[in-house]
Design a protein that fits this description.
The chain has 8 helices and 13 strands. It has 285 residues and is α/β, with parallel strands linked by helices. It has 2 domains: 234 residues, 3-Layer(aba) Sandwich (Rossmann fold); 44 residues, no CATH class. The protein has a 6-stranded mixed β-sheet, sandwiched between helices. Helix 3 packs antiparallel against helix 4. The longest helix is centred in the C-terminal third of the chain and has 25 residues. The two termini are 42 Å apart.
Length: 285
């Protein structure tokens, strides 16, 4: 039942307004004409436009736009900090629905979808495939995620090099909680693969506003350390420091040519995806 609910939630989120939005395009011998260009040595002679040659006595290549399917690998942070909750809703719940929706969308478009879960002690991996049975298995694995422990150590990153030689889209869903820059080290590793990398940074509303009603003692979910906080006295300085930190991370990722988007877990998922995909489309123009 849980898998059916996750599948239905993903379908409901995606259907109706995202059809066709993540198709990549290349110039080639497709059906929709774009432009002519001068013939260059080595060009496929089958692409020559002989009618243009008859009119101009010059050789031209007819270029068209064709749709291409892409390979998408969805990476999910399953370290203990993803258990952070705002009410009854945890970050990992939002990550589950976000990953499921993106997987459903990719499958709908005919793209190959893979799943990589960064769990304590290693990486669970499902290589990209394009079929509904694979998607159903992915939904099952998303439901099984139980965040615990620290972030995956670099020794396990070899799983990430098992992709194809073609450029891929890597989507990383994480709260960017790190102790020793380990997540940015991972992102630097991903950058060496020469793929497009997108980071969805999940934050709960209560941590964005420092509004934990009734709480004065806070525990680090990964280290177990506790801290006493007077929220009302610390809120203004906390919010200012947090905003500076988020901006620093955003700029740092942009400097790496990594797309960054912070999502609050109280934000409707369909709106978050619509905003992301619209912005991504604009950046491709």
């Amino acid at each position: 039942m849980a898998i059916k609910e996750l599948s239905l939630a993903a379908k409901t989120t995606i259907d109706g307004f995202m059809s066709g939005i993540n198709k990549s395009t290349i110039k080639g011998s497709g059906l929709e004409f774009i432009q002519y260009r001068s013939y260059q040595p080595g060009d496929d002679l089958r692409s020559l436009d002989w009618k243009m040659f008859a009119r101009s006595d010059r050789y031209y290549i007819r270029e068209s736009e064709v749709e291409t399917n892409i390979s998408i690998r969805i990476l999910v942070d399953a370290s203990a900090s993803m258990n952070h909750s705002d009410g009854d809703f945890k970050k990992i719940d939002y990550a589950r629905y976000l990953a499921a929706s993106l997987a459903y969308l990719g499958n709908l478009q005919g793209d190959a979808i893979g799943l990589y879960v960064f769990k304590d002690g290693g990486i669970f991996s499902m290589s990209p495939k394009q079929d509904y049975q694979h998607l159903a298995r992915m939904f099952y694995q998303l439901e099984q995620i139980k965040p615990e422990g620290d972030f995956t150590k670099p020794i396990h990153y070899k799983e990430l090099y098992a992709g194809s030689q073609k450029r891929e889209l890597l989507i990383f869903v994480t709260d960017l909680y790190q102790k020793n820059n380990e997540i940015f080290d991972l992102l630097d590793t991903l950058n060496t693969l020469k793929h497009e990398v997108v980071v969805f940074h999940l934050m709960a509303k209560n941590e964005l506003e420092l509004n934990f009603k009734g709480y004065h003692s806070f525990e680090d979910l990964e280290t177990g350390e506790t801290l006493q906080v007077d929220q009302s006295a610390a809120r203004k300085a906390y919010v200012m420091a947090l905003n500076e930190h988020l901006e620093k991370m955003r700029i740092s990722l942009l400097d790496r040519n990594i797309y960054y988007r912070m999502l609050s877990t109280d934000q409707p998922l369909d709106q978050a995806l619509r905003d992301f995909l619209n912005q991504r489309n604009k950046s491709k123009i």
